[in-house]
Design a protein that fits this description.
Length: 693
Amino acid sequence: MDPAQRAERLRKEIQRHDYLYHVLDKPEISDSEYDKLFRELLELEDAHPELRTPDSPTQRVGVAPVSHLPTHRHLAPMLSLDNAFGEDELRAFDERVRRGLGATEGIEYLAELKFDGLSLSLTYEDGLLTTAATRGDGVTGEVVTPNARTVRGIPLRLHSSHTTVFAHKSAEPGEGSARFLIPQGTLEVRGEVILFKDVFEETNRERSERGEQVYVNPRNAASGAMRQLDSRETAKRKLNFFAYGLGAGLRLAETQSETVQRLRELGFAVRPEAEVVSGADGLIGFVRKWEGKRAELPFAIDGVVAKVDRLDFQDDLGATARGPRWAIACKFASEQAFTKLNGILWSVGRTGVVTPVADLEPVFVGGVTVSRATLHNIEDIRRKDVREGDTVIVQRAGDVIPEVVGPVLDKRKGRPRAPEEPEQCPECEKPLSRREGEVALRCTNPACPAQTAAKLRHFASRSAMDIEGLGDKIISRFLELGHLTDLPSIYELQGRREDLEQLEGMGELSVQNLLQAIEDSKTRPLDRFLFGLGIRFVGDKGAKDLARHFRSLDAVRSADYDALMAVPDIGPRTASEIQEWFKEEENQELISRLLELGVSPVEPDAPVGDLFAGKTLVFTGKLERFSRDAAEDLVLRLGGKAAGSVSKGTALVVAGPGAGTKLAKAEELGIPVTDEEGFLQMLPADIREQIGA
């Protein structure tokens, strides 16, 4: 085949696979097959430079560095959005919109996620990318076209299979590819360059290992990558681009939501979370939903954007000098903040692991005031180069424990000493040790008071034995008085009733309630008892797996390594820890004492059928008829397995309201999906009758 014809065919085939992968999430070939096509085109263009075109996929690898970034005046200003902080301000925005339009009924809005990235304006002429520019001051930005070409989510040439709102010219398709219709005229596309969380973490790890300043957040990392003078450096980053609207040029539809769909057809990646909602109540519902689920997303967001959906309404409302009257950004509480590291404390956990904790100047982050944050271990401290007195970046995403991301080196004063790890336990002053191959320091003193307190708190917690009234303050107080010494001593409190009633602030009623809660805890399910024991690496899910597999405490106690490895999702490290824990004489004595004091864990129900035999089900979203645990127990009783994540081996996904990434993953993999009612209808009639369905 003629080199020019082969190069053209390869370009179209690669562009087609880019669209399938980055926009539709439906790849047809493997990464290695894609790389083979790409290398062939690259070699062909190297041998025949005259065949290299501006829209060739090979232009994504980057070009030689420039001395500075030139400027570009946007065809239409990239205006800022007014911010709404709270539901009252969203309602006020909706009222202003209705007043401006003379409307009394609910206005429809397109509600979108507010990406925490770098805004970008892309100019296309006759479907070909000619200019990419940052927002800058809103009127003039910096040209980053060579860098933008390296981002696979940005099409170098627009295409569509059926858009008819503007003139087209046909491009001869390659073998097996779709027929692309290329739009004529000028089109200014707006969107956001972002870095996914996993890529951000990997980037920071690599920078830290090289002794470079870590990025504060994914937005800074994306901005730094796009503003590189050497686009070959940008090409090394796995940047993503999501389109969300238009600037100047062609109008593709009559509404904002339809415009976004047209952009998808033209080859841009857009996010599926956006919804058309009605009025202030619809906006508030969308905000509440994603403020609670933001931690589940693979990228960072800092709020929600609301836009009047009808474009003619947008025209009527117009804009101020600062921003459009038809759009607003509802900001979430920040997940990162800067504060001073006053010192590093060392905390002893229930397994004896001694962990460094940052003592911080209180700072509001992620919706709460934080004064303590984890530093993980001494290796993490050294890798991040965190020192007392530093200004540090604190991060809290969702319900995750706050952590120190790293120091702000530009604000470091003097040359503070690097922290050293302790040699003695900060609580009992016994020597610390480290297991071979592990980073964590340990206190091996079983009588360490800090370990005892942590074990008691864990055992009494809601996820374990759920002993209401036996909280942190009571445990600390009872330890000081000698009323508590270990786990079995909880069940010996019954014999101390009179002593407890004499304590200030307790009283007869509160003591009675506490002792009743302790009595009730004696018959908690087996999995919660196992979790409460605090065996290393055995979380609540692992405890459920053990209980469901062995079905009795005696069976778990006597299980050897091979038997433990037969439990689904129990790996070699966890199996070894469980076996070693039960081998220790003091632990066997602990269980014997608990049983003698009346603790009698309830064994799980026996299987009642094989409806789901050999199948794995995943539940996502909200279930209305019963709890997630109850649903998963039903699957187990019917011979199946309930998993927490979707994979190719998943047989069925049950999705309720609010289903997010798991549902999207199931649809991507072609896994059957049903709702709660569909799941209930699958159950045998006698089971449905038992649960009242």
